[in-house]
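haha ok so turns out i had the wrong file open the whole time. this is the CORRECT one, sorry everyone. sequence first:
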Amino acid sequence: MFLLVLLNSTAQGKAGKVENWIFAPINISSMSTSLGNTDAQNQDLSFSKGEGQVILYKIVN
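then structure:
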């Protein structure tokens, strides 16, 4: 899988601002979720970096 993370959400959609994204391959080692009607929904995910390079992706609005 790939992990895509926006590092500066305050720049999202604003003219003249640069959005900085990290794009990284990951291997998921475990995942669990709780979807009870009366419980708060929570999700736990464990991962490690997969094969390949991590890329810094920039978008100019």
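Residues 27 and 48 are 5 Å apart (CA to CA).
again sry for the mixup
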